[in-house]
Amino acid sequence: MGMSGLLTASLDVMQETIDAIEKEGLRKELKIIVGGGVVGDQWTRGKVNADAAVTSAVEGVKLAEQYVGAK
Q1: For residue 23, is pLDDT > 90?
Q2: What is the torsion angle, in degrees rounded to the nearest 10, for the CA atoms of residue 3, residue 28, residue 47 and residue 33?
Q3: Residue 36: strand, helix, or coil
Q4: Which of 17, 36, 47, 50 suits a disulfide with 5, CB 3.0-4.6 Å?
């Protein structure tokens, strides 16, 4: 699952979404990638509990392809 945010306020919403996924017991079934202008530094500080953070859409697609085993 991918989420993108351009504003700092979107980080809280990203984490709320991840929390809801975890609450429903779905977290183990998917990988979560976050991206956008604000995620890099904040993600590394543990603000968003995602599997990965990317700085571009191309990087996100490449990572998603790795997750699903695309060649």
Answers
A1: yes
A2: -30
A3: coil
A4: 36
Quote the CA–CA distance of 36 and 21 in Å, as a whole number: 20
Q: How far apart are alpha carbons 11 and 24 in whole angstroms?
A: 20
pTM > 0.70: yes
CATH class, domain 2-68, is alpha beta
φ, ψ of residue 64 in degrees (nearest 5): -60, -40
pLDDT in tens, 28-70: 989 999 988 777 766 655 778 889 888 888 999 999 999 998 7
Which helix (H) or strand (E) segment holds residue 22: the answer is: helix 9-23
